[in-house]
Each structure stands twice: as C-alpha cells, then as structure tokens.
Amino acid sequence: MRRLAVLAALPLLFAAACGNSGNVTAKAGGTPAAGVKVAGQFGKKPQVTFPAGKPPATSSAQTISEGQGSPVKEGDSVVANLTAYSWDGKSNAASGSTYDDGAPQLIKVDAKLPSVVHKAFQDSKPGGRFLAVVAKDSLTPDQAEQAKSQGADTSIASVYVVDVMGVPTVKAAQGTAADPGVKGVKLENPGGEQAPKLTTKTDVAAPKDLVSKTVIKGSGPAVKSGQTILVHYTGKIWGSDTEFDSSWGRGEPVMFPIGVGKVIKGWDQSLVGVPVGSRVLVTIPPALGYGKAGSGDKIKGTDTLVFVVDILGVY
Fold first, then answer.
1. In the chain, where are the structural domains located?
2. Is 223 exposed, middle or buried (0-12, 13-18, 19+ CB in 10 A)?
3. Domain 14-166, what fold?
4. How far apart are CA 141 and CA 146, in angstroms?
5. Using CB atoms within 10 A as the burial measure, which of 18, 194, 197, 296 is most buried?
6. pTM exceeding the 0.85 threshold for the entire prediction
7. How far, in whole angstroms, is CA 148 from its chain's centroid?
8. Are 310 and 255 in contact (CB under 8 A)?
9. Alpha-carbon distance values, 281 to 197, 200, 208, 228, 310 (Å)
10. Is the distance from CB of 202 to CB of 260 less than 8 angstroms?
C-alpha cells in the first residue's frame, strides 16, 4: 500500500543529497551562506539569488529569520517547508519545493541528515527560516568515489531554504475513549502515548458503506478540505485481521493533504470536519479504497479496509 501521503518525494532530499560528514560547520548570522541571497516571507516560497561563478566546495548555513519559542532538539520531528536548488554555477535550477507540492514535510532531526543541515535545524526555532548549502566537503571519501564512478558531478552544491513550521509534541489522541459501536471490530485504547490496538478478525459481514466513528473527540479546530494533517494510523483488512500498513509500526506519524484527492476517497470523505486531537475508526468499502484492482500483495479488490486514525495536527 502506498503511504497514504502520495506526494512525490522532494528531489535531492537531505539524507540523499550528499551523505553525512561530521566535520562540516553551520554558520549562523552575518553574510548569507556562500553569498546566496534569500528574499520573501516565511511561509511562502522564497526567491533565491545566486552569486556569479562556480559553486563553493565548502558547506555552510545561514539563519535567515530567528523564529520563536524553544529551539529544535536532536531527535525532534519537525514540520517544514523546503525549497531546493542544484547550484552548478550555470542554470542553478530549482530541484523542487513543498510549496509547489502543496504540503510540508515531516523531517526527523538526526545524524542521517547532512551535518550542516543537522546543525542548522538545531539552531532554528518554530517560525524561523534557514539556508543550507550542502557542498562537496560533505561527501565522505567513499561517497565521493562512488559518485565519481557513477559519473555524478560532485562540484554541484545542493541548496535548501527551510521554513520550520512547527515541532509536534502530541504523540496520540488524548481523552476518554468511547465504544465505536462497529460490530465485528475491536479497539483497545491503552491511553497515554501508546498505540491503540485494532482487531478485525470476524465472521460478521463488512459494512457496504463508509462508516466513520469518533472514538476520542479532540478539542482542536475541525479539519478543513485542502489542509495538511499529521496523523498516526493503523490499517487492517476486515475479517482477516491482516495489517497492511501502520505509521505506529514505523515509529513516525505521516502528513498529507486531505480532501483534495491525494489519498484514498475513504480518507478524504471521513476525516474532513473531524476535530484535531480526535481518534477515529473508519471502515472503507473497496470502491472508496483501492477499487477492483486492490493494492500490492495484501489488499484485494474485494477487501474492506479498517483504519484507526489519530489526528495529531493540521498545517
């Protein structure tokens, strides 16, 4: 099954851009990194101007705007909008932007990021913007040799402008759980930050129509069509208890636009209007899931899907 958030991955994402080297320093304040100029407001696609000449061989970073609140910490998952460029000294073409895709990304701040980006995130705060130039020096000798053998031009620098939209702290829906009242489905709600346990092993016939039941009602604003939501979820097949996908199992929530055709119809039709902070049990007939074709090896065209979804945030 696709990961529900079906937007294409941004080209040259951090982890794949230049690997990770522990010797690159992020520079904050002063002259913009490597002479690159960034214009525009936070929360909107930036305008980037490059200096003439070849790209730098040294990585650097620059805080464009400070933001407010507590700084990002190691291990945080950050909601961010990012715009990327390939700095080759010629066209300096844009590689992609979440602003064009219409949804921010959730980025884990850890050592898998290039060091200069890793450090720049930890120097940032929600509402802040930074610029990172990931250059040739971020490649380890093995990575440089591999890139050379593949014909890659290691002189090209990857440039990122990152808007830190927020740092989610809620891990699960909070509150007293109600019985969803869907015959054939069992749902255990252990409370705290623990994952709910969904059981769909049953001989009861699956509902023919979409069924959405609020198990825990959140106190946040109602989700609107076109917004990007942050969720934790588990998906199983009615009758067999086969789990085909789980963000809980991966240890990381996911983000996607809702109500605009970026996910299966059953999600678009059941989650719009639900308050943030809610836990929802949704049963989705094949026509509102993956249709007659099914999906992958686990979901057949006749399968009814059952999801338990925690709506953690909206952006």
1. 14-166, 186-314
2. buried
3. Chitinase A; domain 3 (3.10.50)
4. 9
5. 18
6. no
7. 31
8. no
9. 11, 12, 16, 20, 9
10. no
Task: Name the token pair of 30.
Answer: 């002063």
- Report the C-alpha gap between 53 and 89 in whole angstroms: 6
Q: Could you give phi then psi for residue 210, rounded to 5 degrees?
A: -65, 130
Task: Give the residues across from 309 on adjacent strands.
Answer: 233, 280
Answer yes or no: CATH 3.40.1160.10 is held by domain 186-314. Answer: no
pLDDT tens, 161-210? Answer: 999 999 999 999 999 999 999 999 999 999 999 999 999 999 999 999 99
In order of 32, 46, 95, 207, 242, the CA distances from 258 in angstroms are 36, 25, 25, 23, 25
- Give CA separation, 14 vs 77, 212, 229, 258, in Å: 14, 37, 22, 25
Helix (H) / strand (E) containing 187: strand 186-188
Asked whether the beta carbons of 156 and 86 are under 8 A apart, the reply is yes
Question: Which DSSP state fits 262?
Answer: S
Kindly state the tokens that stand for 60. 């650097």
